[in-house]
User: Fold this.
Amino acid sequence: MKNTVVKAENIIKRYGDLVALDHFSLEISEGEIFGLLGPNGSGKTTTINCILSLLSFDKGSIEIFGKPMTPTSYDIKKNIGVIMQNVAVFDELTVYENIDYFCGLYITDKAQRKQYVDEAVEFVGLEDFLRFRPKKLSGGLLRRLNIACGIAHKPKLIILDEPTVAVDPQSRNRILEGIEELNRNGATVIYTSHYMEEVEQICTRIAIMDKGKKIAEGTKDELKRMIRNTETVTIEILGLEDRIKDRISTLPHVYSTEYDGTKLTVGCSGGKHNLVRILGVLQENDLSFGRVYSELPTLNDVFLEITGKALRDKED
Amino acid sequence: MFLHNLKYELLSTLRHPALIFWLMLFPIFLGTVFKIGFGSIYEEDTLFSSIPTAVVETADNSILREVVDAVSGDDSPLLKTTYTDEDTALEMLRSGEVKGIICSGDKVTLTVKNSGIEQSILKSFIEQYGVYETIIKDTLENDPANAQKVIAALSADVKACTEKPVTQGNTDLFVQYFYNLIAMVAIFGSETGLHITKDNQANMSSLGARRNISPTPKSISLSASLVGCFIAQAVCMVICVTFIVFVLKVDLGGDLLLVYASSIVGGCLGVTMGFLIGSIARISADAKDAVSMSVSMAFCFLSGLFISNIKGIIADTVPWVNSINPVAIISDCFYCLNLYNDYTRYSVKMISMAIYIVLFSALGVILTRRKKYASI
Assistant:
């Protein structure tokens, strides 16, 4: 059995009348990449700040590495690395100086620190920018510097709070690969995001949050099994009559059909060959159709089915 | 750990653009403006320089020539004379090369173009010469035996008053602007001090949050930040005073080491004031910046940076304001050193500043020692 790295029990955090965390509990084991997924304002960052003992909370308890977490738990803090949502570096220091400064808050031995800083620089690929000030770096490079500052001291627990916000796809992939590499090297990772693709890509276990509550938790497969939808078939078609749509609705495993005049969307729950059966009905009625898609459920479908709303805002 | 924090605090503070501008470049610029502006006013209005005068000899007057040569030849001569003909003298007067024309005919006359201090001096000189000439001529005619005694009596430098300087220092009125400039730089250290709270509080900046989740105790990071800001501010004060004294050649008085000392202590006072302002209110970092700058400017105004006699008015009407105004205390230190030569009063001012530093630091630490925040 793996050790528990983070254990939060029944956390309640209020901002006046607003309940930011509502009886929130969490248990993360050693070696996991644990994803906290939720829309903006769902309480992900509040959870992280409570875990780090930056924020006071009204009720509940938090343990890290089996010990209660307090602001003065310096022995615990030594083993935590945090990558904040906002870039937290000194504008006046160079790339190397920034990493050296933050590493030095954890590692006092100079020789060891130098080695760690060099490794962190290499890890994030900033070798060519060591003498640059942060303002001279692009958004992606700045994020990489932010990560280097958080992980240079080789922490056992790494918390990343939306590290890929406003990052180009290339840098985003590099960051995600880096997180997986850190995990392979032995670090337990907590990863918060409202980008479901990222969470699906790297997290071994996921908790979905909404309005301060944990609404679902499990591996991505476990989460997808929680909902009725197992396949969504979309067909581009014109002039679909209601009788044919009704006929499709009666097919086995079909639980919903929607038609907007150009596109038929069919929700299926379980079963195999759903697409073949639906296309068979269209062919029986001599109907021609355009493009056809068959999609497996995403975490957004999970969120949509549980909360009745989409996980990501349109602007995201 | 402390030294590691201190090293990077110093580096980041000394490279901070706002600090470089407000505490290094701005005082140099303002000091230069003061020197150019007030320096010329002072030289014109206060310092005496020889009066350029043309002398036209239309008749032989050996007495006048002797007297004019006498007042033109000292170390600090009254007149800077040019012997010339009448037309040239008039041309020189018109062009402003000379302030007046002394003409030695049957009667000594003075011609000036307009009125002014220098013209009045020339008039007074000619009138006095006329009186002396009459006395000497009368004596030579009526009592030639005593002529030498009369001339000696007239030549004697009789002083009813003796000059007794109240200070060895620079009594130039405009030097107070430089005192206030140094005091302003010191109190602008509040901007440096403000960064201590910004960079150490999780609810003020991401940097503060990152520091708070590190295993470095807050006492160490706060004390390293304070010491770092003190050192950075001291560097700025030394640059400012050195520029004023050695580049602008402004005489700040006798004991330069004590001038440096009070500037540095004043700078530390500014830092702790900013640290306290940053710790007090739960407002945004930008709002704190604005409050700090406003408070500093208000103190500067009350100490006479913008209107020189405001400090005197306050001293007459609400004297306690000057006793609690840090900028007034800092500039008072310079007055004590330069004008009053009062080391007891200087010590009292230095102790007052030290008390402020301890008080502001202690209050700032108490207010920022909070470990957890209700909101971030």
